[in-house]
Fimbria/pilus outer membrane usher protein (Tatumella terrea), 788 residues
Amino acid sequence: MNKALHPLLLSMACSLSGIARADDYNQLPPPTLGQAESKAYTLYLTLSVNGNKNPELVPVSVNNDHFLVGAAVLRKNYLKFPATSGLVDVTQLPGVHATYDSARQQLDLRVPDAWLPEQFLGNRRRQKELVPVTSHGVLLNYDAYSLKSGSGTATTSTLLEGRFFSDEGTLSQSGVWRTTWQGNDNTPQGYMRYDTSWKYSDVNRLISVQAGDFISDSLTWSNSVRMAGLRISRNFSVRPDLVTYPLLNWSGSAAVPGTVNLFVNGYKTSSQSVNAGPYTLTDVPFINGAGEATVVTTDALGRQVSTTIPFYVSNKLLARGMSDFDLSAGVLRRNYGTKSNDYGEGAFSGIYRYGLTNRLTGSVHSEASEKLWLAGTGADFTPGQWGTLSLSVSHSQYDSLQYGQQYTSGWSYYGRLWSLNLQHINTRGTYLDLSDDSNDAVSSRSSDQATFSITPIGQAAGTFGLGYFAIRAQDGTRTRLANASWSHAIGRSASFSLSLNKTLSSHALTGVAQLTIPWGDQSTVNATANQNANGKVTGQIGYTRAAPVEGGLGWTVAHSFSKENYNQANLTWINRYSTVSGGFYGDDSNVNQWIEASGSLIAMDNDYFLSRPINDAFIVADTDGYPDTVVRYENRRVGVTDKQGHLLIPWVSGWYAGKVSIDTMNLPADIDAPVPEKRVAVREDSGAIVHFPVMRVRSAILTLTNDRGQPLPVGTPLNELDSGQSAVVGYDGQAWLSHLGRQNRLVITTPDGECHYSFTLPQETRIPATIGPIECHFPSVKEPLNDR
């Protein structure tokens, strides 16, 4: 054997011998610490609190199995201990268990769940931070209806509503102009004013102030009245994301990080990640009535804990601590719709509701005028899972001579399979309120109402309903009515319904049976059979094609199988500027012809717009005068901007934060829209200009080479001094720059030095200008900027 191999073989033999004598280790043994080092030393570890890991490294002092961590670090990780500074021995803290995980270089801490912060799980977007906007403008809504009856009378009634809106609120007036063109008509002629008012809403306080004509608010056991004066009220509509009634509230605690899934009535409604510690579900669907919720918690190892609870949610209640009110003062409005300016005596009406708890809401109500005084109180509460109970009592005094009381009680329950609603109203003496004060009528002595609906076996048998209504007048006469109904879905889209009504004091029985069959996307076929109180049965069949919302034609034709041979036909055309419809209806002896046109006229942003009727709010998209730009609202295409760069969006809901966007894909290369999308909430009954900056820019494609004509390396940086832009060289030595001026100065930085270059662009670059090739050479003495 070659002697040169002897040392190698001897080394291998010694190694094998050592391995054979050693224990089986899969890693090197830990180093041996000296006696002093084993008592106190410092490790840099990550912290894990109940499984919630903090990735930051923190110094941990170790002394005889005691772990000392900085007080500030522990407070940051939700550990509680007496106020102190410096190092804290976590092994001595009551309720804390500390373990050192050498494999992960981690200090695991287990603390009481109550120490960890409560987590609110939910992704419902809150609109509170989004301030609703409005712009200055004027709007006029019109609806002109002309009718020529079979008797020869021809009339036209034009409903007009004008609005002036700004940041200070909305001033509006409505009325109708009536004209009789032919024949005799007893209705008043000329202009009849309806309402004139100014309204402003404070989105921070959720309060609306209204001056002029208005309708006061009411409770379930009071009445509204028309007044003119000042009204201050709560307005929850300014926050569409706000839920005023108490929703399903579920709180729990997770031992380790995991996932929480919520199932309501068997349907999965949310899934959220959760850290260890207490949590509260806030992303609960808007539900009403009885149901069953199941919360499933899953940890990282797939272990699940399921909890099922029944619940009852009532939208009649206010959440705890929430209040609602309406204070109206002024004069009573009389003969509304027949006289423009008929006002009575001074009056006041006020209501106030407050959520005492999530199960109890209290309310008070008061009314007053020159002769009337009224006060009452009520409560709504949920007794467990058994629905909502409502009670109220009120007292009135009229002209210091007539006294009366009103007592109301009600109970409602809404479940998945059945629902029941009961209400009883009873008055004693002469009970009057402001709605009675304007005429000689008085409230009935008692009123009872009961409705019941049930879906016994899901949708297979349909839904059955029963109703009972009874009213006893002050003279003791009673009116009682009972009804029964049944509705059932046929297939996926058709439906059948049957309704019977009977006055219990007579043998009269009326009923309606209806079959509805969708016919395509826009059309519906209806077949109806009616029985009147005399027992006569008539039938009607009709076909309706709804006009598309984005514009188009729609029509309705109907025929009644009766002795009079009733017929109906009408045509509707919806376009961008108005809605026009017309037709006829009647029998063989009396045919009525009609035509109607409705729309809006708007003056805003130095422009005029014609539109279909605008019932609430609207938006004008502005693209800085750039035409033919596609505009979308909530991802739905609305149209393209006109020559002034404007497009009107007429179907916006007030206070709702909708997304308005423009399509930049079809814009030319020299057009830039830096903000193509905005989310905007518009105040009710007003309009807002949503501005999208659209600008024309100059662009250039640069080709850069070295002095040998070779492309500069990929990634070579360059700067344009005048615009402050930076870019890098790509493949083939090319770079792209935009937002350039007429005169431009480049600085290209390479390992060999800086290269300077200046170039001039034309007034417009419909397509990016091609500059180059730009040769970069690096003389020993820097040259001044040169134009090439």
Summary: The radius of gyration is 39 Å. Residues 40 and 537 are 101 Å apart (CA to CA). The chain has three helices and 55 strands. The longest helix spans residues 6-21.
